[in-house]
Design a protein that fits this description.
By secondary structure, the chain is an alpha/beta fold. 37% of the residues lie in helices and 24% in strands. The protein has an eight-stranded mixed β-sheet with strand order 13-12-11-7-10-9-8-14.
Amino acid sequence: MPDPLGVGMIGCGMIGQIHAAELAHLVDDGDVRAVAAADPSEDARAAANRNCRFERLYAHGQQVIDDREVEAVLIATPTASHRDLVLATLASGKPLLCEKPLAPSFETVRELYDAVAASGLTAQVGLLTRWHYLASRLHELVTTRELGRPMGYMLRDDQYWPTGQIVPGHSSWRSRRAIAGGGALLEHTIHGIDLACWMFGPAVRVWGRTRAVFGYDVEDVAALTVEHADGTIGSIVTVFSGVRGREETRLEVFFEHATVETTIGFLVGADEDGFLLQRADSPPERPDLAAMRDEHFTRLGITRRDFFFPTYPADRAWVHAVRAGAPASPGFDDALRAHAVIEAAYRAAATGEPVDLVAELAVP
């Protein structure tokens, strides 16, 4: 078995603390050595360190990048800080995992994609819904054509507003355009749009409308119609609301010969998880979710079941890709596709006209 990979993490907020818990699992697996973590907040550093005992704690992210025993860097900081940290990590020659969204602006996202492509380094993006067992099963049904060709889909994505005015004690940067770049669509439903591009292929045209009900300078409601290159048409609605405690993704896919309804919760094995398959002239099929979940993780080679988020299989896959010197998935190319759809939606909302994904919105 190879030596554990020396990982350093930058950003010890809520998402960083989740990653820290997964790194602790990977330390236990023998895959990772938790070398260092950094955050300007002493309280945040302490919280992350409770989830995973790092050998060193720093106040500044560059200290993690410069640490000679850090072999790979995990970036879980607010969106506006990603650019400098990604470029500094690439300059150091170290592989990385960067949380989504990659940047507040599409121009910067493309800059980061180009930099990663030029570096040849393993780089993954935190689009972790792909690692959910229900999303994996739906992707399998789409790609195998077992139910015929996909015709259309409906994605509804909603959760509580992740900001301090709605959730006391929560960080508030996600409700500020200068730091987050966007609201419900960019910050949250980039996961769902990544799923749509993963399942149905590249988007070619987008219609969109947005609304800011709570008065922040980013949207809390967005509605999109997305046309994919294969002709599949999707309808997407995303909402940040004041319903504290709620976070749910519902994806319905209409095939030639069946309809599939999935409800994906935030946690692994969440109560709201659901999967229903309706074939012609047949009663609805509701598979055993626990068995489906177990089969999914077994197929990934995962033996433990004591993790609460799909972040664990995502982080584990990244570590294994880094060790193998292989491309990681989802990569910066996948993130660029999702960001292009979101940028097209924002442009469509601003002009009231559909936007084609051509010119600078075209993705290699």
